[in-house]
Every structure is written in structure tokens, then in C-alpha cells.
Amino acid sequence: MSTLPHPALAAADPELAALVGAEERLQAETLRLIASENYVSRAVLEAAGTVLQNKYSEGYPGRRYYEGQQNIDQVERLAVARAKDLFGVEHANVQPYSGSPANLAVYLAFAEPGDTVMGMSLPMGGHLTHGWGVSATGTWFRGVRYGVRRDTGLVDFDEVRELALKERPKIIFCGGTAVPRTIDFAAFAEIAREAGAILVADVAHIAGLIAGGAHPSPVPHADVISTTTHKTLRGPRGAMLMSRETHAKALDKAVFPGLQGGPHNQTTAAIAVALHEAAQPSFRSYAHAVVANARALAEALLERGFDLVSGGTDNHLILMDLTPKEVPGKIAAKGLDRAGVVVNYNTVPYDARKPFDPSGIRIGTPALTSRGLGVEHMPAVADWIDRGVRAAGAGDEDALAAIRREVAELMAAYPAPGLPG
């Protein structure tokens, strides 16, 4: 394949231009199964590289600390209006630099250092910023954690309620980074009300599915919604906070001046483009196809003897425990990478291995669905994973190389959005 034209970059910094070209080829030729990755459109890429990069815009539209904001204010207002329309929320802030700073803003808005906060345990599928010990959120706040049942891999809401009423957290997070099942926002909301807590739905992974009607929305239930704008939403690397109007002032003040200076205006513009794309009928079809592909892939993996946490998936994500295969997750992930099947190694609930050398791998279907692959391709994907895991365990590099050739052949028939064919 040819790389995208970057003449100015190639002239100014050929070494960096070569690396960009290599990444373009890698993204085009491999099967990307990282659950948190996707392909953005050329329109999103172009918006992220505009002269909006040149502007400083501390503050909010109509209330800036710099002049010359005539166009920037309109860009941000457009992104905010599109977020509110798409998700049906009363308030949206599109300035957070990423998902972790967005979650930090929630703490700044609603808690004081030392307060108790509650979230899903990281090894059970939660996120670092939900009060985990090695995160600032677990250092500055007292984190208490819920998990999933050993027998089902699902959240035990009786246990969550008992913990919440005992600990009385200021904030309860629901959502995470390795949650393959539908999040019951209503159940979490009922517990949060009883405990007197602010409920925050971290939907970074499933925002695109929610926008496309392929996952229930937290809007009727959560006080605050935090999300990244990439992953299933297919936007740039940014974030948003959405809420009821009653929390708007506290959240806006926490983002700026609480945590950040000037917003990244080029990212705000790219978010606006992605939200416009997500409002189209074709995006709804995409979101449902992501789920259909994940379910078909899970079924094909189960047929090949893989152990899936919770027994399958309701969304875009599959979490696999490779213990029965007797291949550690890290070895499997690195072997699959050499085979052109890109995944990440991941802890599984009640994992006996260490986080940097865990028992599982995490896979997802957003990127392959963006390329146009459908349920009819999922048996082949499952077969590559099956063969790749076995080859990785056996150290069979010839078998991994054979898979890579097969993967590249299929990828050539399904060009990635935003990349040249």
C-alpha cells in the first residue's frame, strides 16, 4: 500500500515521517483486536491537524482569557451541542484532555482528599482512576472496590449494595476497561441513591455503542457520565464529561481552572466531526455490527475450547482466560502480534498470575468492524487466534508467519477508514 502524503513532514524530519509511514502500513496490514482502538475517518484526521492547533483558548465560549476567539467559540459550541443532542444530556464539557483527567475532574468536583470513593477493582475489570491504589485517585482518596462473582463473572449487586451502605462513598463509579457484559445503570443508580453517593458512569469503552443504540444509556440514571472520544465512538484521543444541569458548574470549574489550562482546539474540532458522524444512520448500523461481530467471535472461540470470562459478551469486548490452554497471556499476545493479530494481555478475575504477566488476553471488534468485516469472517478470526495461541505456546514461528500472511491477504480486501487503499 502507499502511505498518506506528508511532504512537509518528510522534508523537515524524514526519520519521523518514515515512522509514521511504517505505522500506516502496520495499521493497514494487521488485524487490530485491541478493544480500545479503532480507525478514525479522514475527516477526523484532517480536523485534528488544522490551524486550530495554533490557538490558546483558556476559559469557555464567551468567557475566554484570550482574544481572537470568534471561530474557536463556535467550534466548541458546535461540539457541545452535538454531544448534548447525540447522548440526550443537559450539559456537556468537551475540554478534558483524556479519560483519566476527565475522571480526576469528577473527584475535584464532588470529593475532598481522604473521602471514600468506590469503583470496580482493577483486576476484576475496573479502571485505574476508579480509586485503585497505584493511581492518584487511590492515593488522594480512600478507595473501596467491588468485583465480580467467581461462578458467573458478573457483578453481584447485593454485595455492591452492602459495601456501599457500609462505606458510604462520596462517589460510585460503574463501568471499566474489561467489562464484557451490559452495565446495569439502573441498579447502580438505586444503590447510589440509597448510599447518598454521586453515580458516575464511565462509558469510555461503550460510548459509541450507546450513541448507536447498541447498549442501554446511562443518561436517565447517572449523575455524571465520563467518556473518552475514541474507542467505539471513533473520534480523536480526547474526552467528555456529561451531566445533569445541576452539576454543570461544578464540573466545568473542575476541568478549568481546576485541572487544565487551554483546551486542545484541534481535538475539539475533531470531536465535533466524530459526533456528527455518530449521529448518522450508518453509525447506528456500525454500532450494532460491532456487537454482532463480538458475539459471533465469542461463539466461535467457545467452539474452539476457549474460556471466556462471563461466558461471552454483550458488547464489543471479549476477555479470555488462557489458563486451560496452558499459555500465559503475555506469551500469547506477543505471539499473536507477530502473527499480525494485535491484542493485549490482560488480567482476568481472580487471576493467580501477576498483572504484567497475566493469564488472559482482551480482544474487541470495533476496528475490524470499521474495516467492514462481518459475522461471516469471525470463524476465520477465531481460527487465527486459536492457531496463534498454540503456535505462541510452542514457539512455532513458521506457523505465526503463515497466519500473518493470511491476515494480510484478508486485510488487503478491506481497506481501513482514514488510510489509503
User: What is the straight-line distance between the termini?
Assistant: 6 Å
* Average pLDDT number: 97
Choose one word for the global shape: globular
Portion of residues within helices: 40-55%
Main sheet properties: 7 strands, mixed
Strand content: 5-15%
In the CATH hierarchy, the architecture of the largest domain is 3-Layer(aba) Sandwich
The overall number of domains is 2
Would you identify the regions where 5 or more consecutive residues have pLDDT less than 50? none
Q: Let me know the CATH homologous superfamily of the largest domain.
A: Type I PLP-dependent aspartate aminotransferase-like (Major domain)
Q: Count the helices. How many?
A: 16
C-alpha-based Rg, rounded: 22 Å
CATH topology of the largest domain: Aspartate Aminotransferase, domain 2
> For this structure, what is the CATH class of the largest domain?
Alpha Beta
* Number of DSSP-assigned strands: 15
Order of strands, main sheet, comes to 4-10-9-8-7-5-6
Structural class: alpha/beta
What is the strand and helix layout of this fold?
Elements lengths: L6 H6 L1 H16 L1 E2 L9 H7 L10 E2 L2 E2 L5 H18 L3 E3 L5 H12 L5 E5 L15 H5 L1 E5 L10 H11 L3 E4 L10 H11 L2 E5 L4 H5 L12 E5 L10 E5 L4 H12 L5 H14 L2 H23 L3 E2 L8 E5 L7 H10 L2 E2 L1 E3 L13 E5 L1 H5 L7 H17 L2 H16 L9
Parallel strand pairs: 1-13, 5-6, 5-7, 7-8, 8-9
Antiparallel strand pairs: 2-3, 4-10, 9-10, 11-12, 12-15, 14-15
Cofactor: pyridoxal 5'-phosphate
EC number: 2.1.2.1
Subunit structure: Homodimer.
Describe the structure.
The chain has 421 residues and is α/β, with parallel strands linked by helices. It folds into two domains: 47-278, Aspartate Aminotransferase, domain 2 (3-Layer(aba) Sandwich), CATH 3.40.640; 289-412, Aspartate Aminotransferase, domain 1 (Alpha-Beta Complex), CATH 3.90.1150. Helix content is 45%, strand content 13%. A seven-stranded mixed β-sheet has the order 4-10-9-8-7-5-6, sandwiched between helices. A four-stranded antiparallel β-sheet has the order 11-12-15-14, covered by helices on one side. Strands 1-13 form a two-stranded parallel sheet. α8 (185-195) links the parallel β7 (171-174) and β8.
